[in-house]
Amino acid sequence: MTIPISQIILHKLRMNLKSPFSTSFGTFQEKDFFIVEMIDQDGNQGFGESVAFSSPWYSEETVGTNQHVIEDFLIPLLQKHPVSHPDEVTKVFAPIRRNNMAKAALEGAVWDIYAKRNETTLAKALGGEKKEIEVGISIGIQPSVKDLLNTIEWAAEEGYKRMKIKIKPGWDVDVLREVRKHFPTLPIMADANSAYTLKDIDHLKQLDELELMMIEQPLEHDDIVDHALLQKELETPVCLDESIHSFDDARKAVELGSCKIINIKIGRVGGLTESKRIHDYCKANNIAVWCGGMLEAGVGRAHNIALTTLDQFILPGDTAGSSRYWEKDIIEPEVVAKNGMIKVPDTPGIGYEINRQALEDFTISKKVFTL
Ligand code: OSB
Ligand code: MG
């Protein structure tokens, strides 16, 4: 039986991060993004969140390109091709190249509505069994080493299971040495967001003495060849983020030896169905995966939690609690991480209610599409 989608509502939101978040490519403070609301003929509501940012720094997609692609291409495809299972959405969207975050926002809403129609949780609909998930935290580039040490100490007290420290040239080996000195046994890793080239091999090799869990995306955002050369020279495992946009990207990177670990972001790979395919391939090939983050509001956070219940997500992800990012989130209850664990909700779909008042308060525009 097809899922009788009757309406899609695109909510454009603006939310302000509690504190600026800095990476090697730029700083985030105010965040504009889309929440997709989908309504079926039986009155079920499904929600998805686009993780595209306002500027094309992390990838080529933006809030603006999402709007164009969702309105002018993806919704018309859904109007023409009804689906009976969310896995079919990937095929319906296949004629459109890339634009994975736009696709994932709609696909996520279809998954939520599908789980609700079947009176099951999104986690179970995906095949996940964990009752709680382990999470870590991503710490942006700080004004000083002292600030970084203080933040790590706070995160350790909160119980986060691993600390990811953003690095860039000039804020890397020396800073991490200092961190290691103060926290000799803490699980730490580094994320470079493509700030280095192969010319930096000797510099990066110094990281090997610090026993990092991994280094994430040290080289170009679109590279898997140079990463394979780098991984041969480094003892520290390489984890790929930006370079992996699909199942085939993951397969090729693993075959080339470009990484030992993969960060799966639902938006970057075009949805939950593709995320699951990458997960299954990594499981069969003994590659550890974890769930990345894009400074999501509650809806995106809920999708990340559901995905992380799959069993090859053996490393703590970046899905910290709502209060790490927002004064007020758009879901109820908000996501709470206690001792680095998040309880997987057991009510149907994403398992969190939308806080309609908060959604409205953060809305800057809204558009309704009838199917
Ligand atoms: O590289 O994982 C990344 C934030 C924005 C863009 C890219 C990245 C990040 C993070 C933060 O590391 C993850 C989070 O806390 O949501
Ligand atoms: Mg990253």
From TrEMBL:
Chain's gene name: menC
Keyword match Lyase: yes
Enzyme Commission number(s) of this protein: 4.2.1.113
Gene Ontology terms: biological process: menaquinone biosynthetic process
CDD domains per UniProt: NAAAR
Name recorded for this polypeptide: o-succinylbenzoate synthase
NCBIfam families assigned to the protein according to its UniProt record, in alphabetical order: menC_lowGC_arch (TIGR01928)
The species this protein was found in: Bacillus oleivorans
UniProt-listed InterPro entries: Enolase-like_C_sf, Enolase-like_N, Enolase_C-like, Mandelate_racemase_C, Mandelate_racemase_N_dom, MenC, OSBS/NAAAR
Domain Mandelate racemase/muconate lactonizing enzyme C-terminal: 145-237
Pathway noted in the entry: Quinol/quinone metabolism; menaquinone biosynthesis; Quinol/quinone metabolism; 1,4-dihydroxy-2-naphthoate biosynthesis; 1,4-dihydroxy-2-naphthoate from chorismate: step 4/7
Keywords, ordered alphabetically: Lyase, Magnesium, Menaquinone biosynthesis, Metal-binding
Residues engaged in binding Mg(2+): 191, 216, 241
Catalytic residues in the record: 166, 265
Function: Converts 2-succinyl-6-hydroxy-2,4-cyclohexadiene-1-carboxylate (SHCHC) to 2-succinylbenzoate (OSB).
Cofactor entry: a divalent metal cation
Molecular function per GO: magnesium ion binding; O-succinylbenzoate synthase activity; racemase and epimerase activity
Family of this protein: Belongs to the mandelate racemase/muconate lactonizing enzyme family. MenC type 2 subfamily.
